[in-house]
Amino acid sequence: DAGVIQSPRHEVTEMGQEVTLRCKPISGHNSLFWYRQTMMRGLELLIYFNNNVPIDDSGMPEDRFSAKMPNASFSTLKIQPSEPRDSAVYFCASSYRVGANVLTFGAGSRLTVL
Amino acid sequence: QQQVKQSPQSLIVQKGGISIINCAYENTAFDYFPWYQQFPGKGPALLIAIRPDVSEKKEGRFTISFNKSAKQFSLHIMDSQPGDSATYFCAATLSLTGNQFYFGTGTSLTVIP
Could you tell me which of A4, A11, A103, B64 has the fewest CB atoms within 10 Å of its CB? Predict the structure, then answer.
């Protein structure tokens, strides 16, 4: 298995632009998580899905952030409009079942908003 | 409220020395405590984990020590090597849900040759 695949690996954009980050979880995993990593706040859970259904989005910073999982093999995290304070590394992780206790992370998408 | 507190923020150790990273948790219902290792440009990867029914778990040079009464656990890296230089995260979760992993803020470890 190729692991959790994220794209793009790096994104540089200007304030106000829309940003879409993509994730392909490991085949057979039915839980998907989006995390944001910054020096100040470490790893923060933004949202997670079970069987493509969003379960908890309380970590999503504000309405500018949205996430979707249209099928078991694809998820997106969208920021519209983007702001400089959104600059961070965004990780997608998946787990093969609730309670499996093992998260497999992707390599991350480094976002820079100018 | 920070569910898992991790220290130190950064650590520099000589090659061959022992690296020790400490974590403390709040919720006594947590029943699974993993450590993740992250190299620059990579995502965190599971290193070792422990459940609270044991006080210690060892895998090679990596050992977790667990103190349930104190609600603390620590990672010990014996004979530290330059290749161990990475950021280490402790975490805690509830097995029944497995959804919410509470991560510490991370420790940047540098092992000097």
Answer: A11
